């Protein structure tokens, strides 16, 4: 049985600066499958630099708790052409499924493309059963 995973992307702090000129223009995107072609994403926080606020809820409508065990979150810098990765994290969903009401709100460490811990992202993650 599939559920909906609602992820509210609140903010990211202490992001790596990937811009040569100006400030980061970050957005966040999420997926349950690294190979997915399209990932739901937030609006771009123009000239946000190292601190970005979105307060935007994204939905993944085909969440199967028995099969999909991780949520992937990427933060990218919007560019003309190819967007540049800033940070990423992987969140085990067992903690959401075990939480009271199947909702958690927390800060998660972010990692650079070099694998170094740099920054945090604040998320609220909720599992919504069919018909709720």
From TrEMBL:
InterPro entries: C2_dom, C2_domain_sf, Synaptotagmin_plant. SMART domains: C2 (SM00239). One of its GO terms (cellular component) is endoplasmic reticulum. Residues 1-108 form the C2 domain. SUPFAM superfamilies: C2 domain (Calcium/lipid-binding domain, CaLB) (SSF49562). One of its GO terms (molecular function) is lipid binding. Transmembrane segments: none annotated. This is C2 domain-containing protein. The lineage of its organism: Eukaryota, Fungi, Fungi incertae sedis, Mucoromycota, Mortierellomycotina.
